[in-house]
Amino acid sequence: MRAVWVAFGLVGMLSLVAGVAGQQPAPPTIAPATARLDQTLGGLDGPGFALVHREDGDLVFAACERGTIQYWAKDVWMGVRTGEKTPHVLKGHEGPVIALARAAGTTLASAGADGKVLIWDVAEFKVKQTISPGGIIRTLAFSPEGSLLAGAGDESVVYLWESATGKQKAKLEGHTDWVWSLAFTPDGKQLASGGSDGTVLFWDVPNSKKQLSFSSSPPPPPNTSPPTTVNTVVSLAYSPDAKLIALGGSDAQIHLVNPADGKIARSIPGHTSSVTGLAFHPGGKVLASCSKDRTVRLWDPAGGQALKTLEGHTAWVQGITFLAQGNRLASVSADQTVRVWDLTAPPPK
Predict the structure, then answer these.
(1) What is the DSSP string of 240-284?
(2) What is the DSSP letter of 57?
């Protein structure tokens, strides 16, 4: 496995150097209406709770119920080595692993039901730092440059830690219930958090201060009563240009919000259960979502139109991530599989 990692890491490094030396390539053209299943990676040791990947690395990581992080190299998830789909395993938690985050380079963070946050060096497959915040962390996010790790969960606060040392930099207070989701803006200056109190908070990261708070539910129509249940915010994602933030929650809708004022610009119905994961395509013109309704869906965020429903998982889907510069989308489920969907146009017959 290490030889495969080194080989693919070298290819990735050369590609990065070439991109820096010249013009960065534009995101590839995709055909979401013809998206289809490409690979099914089984062998998880229980339900999958989170899934992460970065373009400057070749590994896809899944958080699993029995205390493991399982991962596959690019030659497997791209289908080059179809006979070797058994995942490799990282073991460090005592109990379910419930959140993951991936930083630039070789840094991975995980949070478990054991109350620990682990920061890994995935080149050496070793734990670099262990953080014990005092409560269970249910969501993690690295700042874009990787210097900060944000985490939140049962304590209703958002922690900021230095990823290199694990030292706490700030403790952001403002939520009144569990926090389930975090997302940094592409420039890393703003952090969004959402949870069971039905609110989304925007934080000024450099100054560790709250900027804005807004409800995750749209205003009720005129002459109607407000909703009687709170829309728990389960997932958040900024668009690549940071002009929109998508939030998904227990109301089974996706709400697209203007980060400048917190107003909901558009609501997208379609899912029939909680929206557990969101991810914008690198080009920004496609939004992917997953849900407890067992589906993965592709949307046009500009108009809110449904582009494709990807079916095949046999239990709730908990996480999604784009792969291969947006040519693939991966999803992880309680059915103990990771599925990789091909978003490119099918070859002509």
Answers:
(1) TTSS-EEEEETTS-EEEEETTTTEEEEEE---SS-EEEEEE-TTS
(2) S
DSSP character string of 207-231: TTEEEEEEESSPPPPTTSPPPSS--
Q: Minimal CA–CA distance to 113: which of 47, 170, 52?
A: 47
Q: What span, in angstroms and rounded, lies between the C-alpha atoms of 135 and 154?
A: 6
What CA–CA distances, in Å, run from 122 to 97, 330, 333? 16, 20, 23
Tokens of 220: 């009720």
- List the end-to-end C-alpha distance of the chain, in Å, as a whole number: 37
275 with 253: CB under 8 angstroms?
yes
> How many CB atoms sit inside 10 A of residue 229's CB?
9
Q: At a CB cut-off of 8 Å and minimum separation 6, what does 154 contact?
A: 135, 136, 138, 178
Q: Which residues contact 22 (CB under 8 A, 6 or more apart)?
A: none
Q: Split the chain (349 residues) into runs of 10 and give each run's mean pLDDT.
A: 40 38 59 96 93 92 96 90 77 97 95 98 95 96 97 97 97 98 97 98 98 91 78 98 97 96 95 98 97 98 97 97 96 97 90
pLDDT (0 to 100) of residue 16: 36
CB pairs under 8 A, 24+ apart, for 135-139? 136/98, 136/111, 137/98, 137/99, 137/111, 138/98, 138/99, 138/111, 138/178, 138/179, 138/180, 139/99, 139/111, 139/179, 139/180, 139/181, 139/182
Q: How many residues does the chain have?
A: 349
Model confidence, pTM? 0.89
